[in-house]
Amino acid sequence: MSNPDKAINYFHINQKQLTEAYLNLLRIPSISTNPDHKADMVKAAEYLSKTLAELGFERVEIFQTKMHPILFAEKRSSNPEAKTLLIYGHYDVQPVDPLDEWKSDPFQPEFRGENVYARGASDMKGQVMASILALESVVKTSELPINIKYLLEGEEEIGSPSLDKFIIDNADMLSCDMILNPDAGMVGMNQPTLVYGLRGMTYFEVRVDGPKADLHSGLWGGNVANPATVLSEIIAKLHNPDGSVAIPGFYDRVVPLTDDERKQIAANKTSDQAFLDITGSPALYGEEDYTPLERQGARPTLDVNGFYSGFIGDGAKTIIPAYAKAKISCRLVPDQDPMEIYNLAKNYILSIAPDTVRTKIFLHSAGPAYLANDAPGAENLVEAFREVWNAPVTFKREGGSIPVATVMLQELGVKSLLTGFGLPDDGIHSPNEHQHYPTWLKGIEALIRFYLSFGEE
Ligand SMILES: [Zn+2]
């Protein structure tokens, strides 16, 4: 029997008891945003550290933060040449409200059909436990061919306020050759997925000031420019009629999509109708020359996120507002430079702003896009997926960002393998969150093959 077969066999023989270890973690209500669950957060971190210690991890340490603990653990291979894999995960979950929409207790996991229902079943206790149980199956049946490090945080669902500093302060401890982040997910049940692109962002605010205070529109209307009108005109000039962004130079550094990439993206079978159903919009809108999936992850955008001026209370008030404000963000793709985009936007907006008002622009934040089709270990993971699913791997560009991957690239110099075994309709963050159990089992088998693939070189 080959090593993967031995380990997979171990998992199947012990499947019931190993699944129970997953269900036990789901039973801990580790809701990070709710102070009433502070003790549950500690309980979840301790449960995971105990689990890893029992697997023979030489170092298992819980670090206190201002809010919820970060767990670090390390297990070394007996091979001094072995590569090091860092696995990132989070053990916190979202709140469960509205509770009455749950068909079963969110913290009493229940099997219904092919799914396990519980808060965190998919996002992401299921993924963390899949990585641990795959590791157990390897450790119990053969030599571990790689060093494994775990970084598990309890603040992901509240924006990871402690994580950046922790990574910066502990870069040596976290040093590694590869990073596995299974917090992404699959595009469909038979489509194992690797996310290879994340968009970056430039976020800024435009403020247009007119009169020194709100004016009586009967006395002054028709004699001074209205900041709300002026800002609306500016915003209207930020896009061309074909849906593209009108800021000169905005697309100059955008890496064009190759035919191969377009094919890979098209392999994701999500339909336009699905986009309409999810958004509830009457029609899709965007750059004419690209498909909705391409626009979602591979093209840059500009959006007004907030727009404020004048009187917005109930009833009527006749004024010319003193000022108008808009919050605007651009989602960026490789190789756009977030500060360059800010300066291009600023110069363009100032150039079209009339001198009947005073226009100011300031920056909120700027972060680069991220492309990781060459993340170390990707070939091994893709091969493991192929063996288990017998289907081509989907390479996906994500529309949003995964800040931890960007920080790890900056601080540790390693790109992350962004994947996971959750499905798009798992209801993460919603009532009746669930994990498709057969997919979870396949995920464990894939990770077993992935870990062991480093021993054959
Ligand atoms: Zn998550």
Q: Percent of residues in beta strands?
A: 15-25%
Q: Which ligands are bound? A: zinc ion
Which residues sit in consecutive blocks of at least 5 with pLDDT less than 50? none
Structural class: alpha+beta
Can you offer a commentary on this structure?
The protein is α+β, with helices and mostly antiparallel strands and 457 residues long. The protein has 2 domains: 3-197 and 370-455, 3-Layer(aba) Sandwich (Aminopeptidase), CATH 3.40.630.10; 200-254 and 300-367, Alpha-Beta Plaits, CATH 3.30.70.360. The chain is 33% helix and 21% strand. It has 14 helices and 18 strands. The chain has helices at residues 3-13, 15-26, 38-54, 125-139, 163-169, 217-220, 227-236, 259-266, 272-279, 292-297, 338-352, 378-389, 403-412, 437-452, and strands at 59-63, 70-75, 84-90, 110-112, 115-117, 147-153, 178-181, 193-198, 200-209, 215-216, 301-309, 319-320, 323-332, 358-367, 370-371, 394-398, 416-418, 434-436. It has a 6-stranded mixed beta sheet with strand order 1-2-6-3-7-17, with helices on both faces. Strands 11-13-9-14 form a 4-stranded antiparallel beta sheet, with helices on one face. A hairpin with a 2-residue loop joins strand 4 (110-112) and strand 5 (115-117). Helix 5 (163-169) packs parallel to helix 13 (403-412). The longest helix is centred in the first third of the chain and has 17 residues, at 38-54. The protein is elongated, with a radius of gyration of 25 Å. The two termini are 19 Å apart. The mean pLDDT is 94. Bound molecules: zinc ion (ZN). Zinc ion (ZN) is lined by residues 90, 123-124, 156, 183.
